[in-house]
Amino acid sequence: MPPLILALDFGGTKHTAAITYPGERNWQAHKRAFSPANADASTDIEIMTSLAEELLAGKQPAAIGVSFGGPVDFKTGTVYLSHHVTAWENIPLQQLLEMEFGVPVSVDNDANVAALGEHRFGIGQGYESLMYITVSTGVGGGLILNGKPWRGANGMAGEIGHTAIDPNGPLWFGRRGCVERLASGPFIAQQAREWLQAKPEQGQILRNLVNGNLEAITAEVVSQAAAEGDELALQALEKAAWALGVGIGNSANLINPQLFILGGGVAKAGEIFWRMLRKFARETAMPEVDFEIVYAALGDDAPLWGAVALAENLI
Length: 315
Fold this sequence. Notes:
2 domains; 10 helices; Nucleotidyltransferase, domain 5; five-stranded mixed β-sheet; globular; single chain; alpha/beta
């Protein structure tokens, strides 16, 4: 029997575990669970441990790869913090999982792991340089340079979400006008909601989609309304596309990767969003800088397959 690999993905609100064998490109088993609203680090670890034990059913994996939704010290596998779940500050996740399962563990930030997954198994195969960007609750990035993950001096490279593009923009984690504050899913919904409240005569299509309940608005609903011709929804989507496009264009000028790969919920916003995004990125980048912007081939499983790659490196 070949060695078993356990892949874990700690998300902001949902956690996924899967098992496979080295060289396989299908899951042997796959389970997902959602965190309660008041979850903290210990809750998340308990949920993930339970998922893993259900999948393993008494078997021991040869290695475990872990994707975590927040900054991580890759050398030690210690989580710096989570921007969305409390009490994750300086948690030695790698050490805790090694003690729990008795096998080697590798932990990295979810965007770094997704970049590795797309490079080894997805649309990034054959490219020497790429940047993976996840756009959902937050905005994060991971880099492959010269065919290898590039994490920077202390694992913080690729944090496109925390680059400032509007010095007069809204405050977010001590910085004004950063990409995450302007392009993430919650911001798209918030922006549309605020405009609807300020302009009661506009956004009728969007209002109808939520039966007048503005609190039910999500980025997905805004995208749907924009596709149906709602001008206010289109403006909200355009603002997010501008922010992300400027961030990508600046990254293209600075790093010059061949490929930008987008994953996460906002990346599913539809053709209108993608057309605007590519336009703003191209306008921001120097004319001589060549790049493509594509959707993640592995979809929401990109971090999980990257976790497989991390584990394979340990065997």
